[in-house]
Structure of Chemotaxis locus antisigma factor antogonist:
Amino acid sequence: MPIDITTNDLSVRVSLSEELTIYSVIEFRDALISHLKPSVDISVNLSQVTEVDTAGLQWLLALKAWSMAQSVEFCHHSKAIVDALELSGLSGTFDDTIVLASEARS
């Protein structure tokens, strides 16, 4: 799973691509954990995620609940993410506006 992480003193910006599944979620966690600090804003771009399973959804829930973060936002949801959120009944759980990536709208 390719992960692009950009940080500064106040924010962590993450872009994920390919799959967010039981096989890759540990890689995502390990790559991100060293960048997490108290009172930072975290933004995760999900536009390039092609597959997600319950382990991936569970990690997104855990990240959203991470109490030290000032805010955690998921943005540019891919069709795979939207489908998984709807299927699991978690669409409203994240309190994020679901914005589809442009290729997911077609």
